[in-house]
Amino acid sequence: MSLEMLTPDKVQIKDQVNDWSEAIDIASQPLLQQEYFDERYIQAMIDSVHNLGPYIVIAPEIAIAHARPDESVNKVGLSLLKLENHINFSAEGHYASLIFVLSAVDNTKHLEILKQLAQALGDQQIVERLLQTTDKNKLISILKGE
Questions:
Q1: Which pLDDT belongs to residue 141?
Q2: N or C end of the chain: smaller count of CB under 10 Å?
């Protein structure tokens, strides 16, 4: 499993959304439509943020929405919603413009994707390039290090 699974049909670019839960819902839609998971997984991701706080915001401008693997997930997947205007996940300044959704079928199969994503997003220059582009294919190639 690698970042190769992030394809243009799983990337969306929007100016803005109303709130963080809508951001998670919209970011999830490509994976939902392709049956990576069902509606219960989207609700589980939203419930996790409600219950645990904005832990999915891993750095300024970056959120990786996910929930515990369960029967609502059919396969490992990755999607991305890029917002031109970031959304706040809390009053304490947890904000993101890059909202990834990661679906996991167990506790290990998604770890390589997470590792590659963390490596790419750990580079501030890559993050800046992602924030500046408005092209799906360019977003994907930046993430892949091309």
A1: 93
A2: C
DSSP track, the chain:
--GGG--GGGEEEES--SSHHHHHHHHHHHHHHTTSB-HHHHHHHHHHHHHH-STTEEETEEEEE-----TTB-S-EEEEEEEEEEEESSTTS-EEEEEEEEE-SSSSTTHHHHHHHHHHHT-HHHHHHHHH---HHHHHHHHTT-
Has 86 been annotated as catalytic?
Answer: no
Torsion of CA 145, 73, 87, 13, to 10 degrees: 50
Give the domain range for residue 35: 2-144
CATH number of the domain to which 57 belongs: 3.40.930.10
The number of domains in the chain is: 1
Report how far residue 23's alpha carbon sits from residue 45's, in angstroms, rounded to the nearest whole number.
11
Residue from 66, 86, 94, 110 carrying the catalytic annotation: 66
Average pLDDT for 53-80 = 94
Predicted local confidence at residue 51, as pLDDT: 94
Mean pLDDT over 9-19 rounds to 97
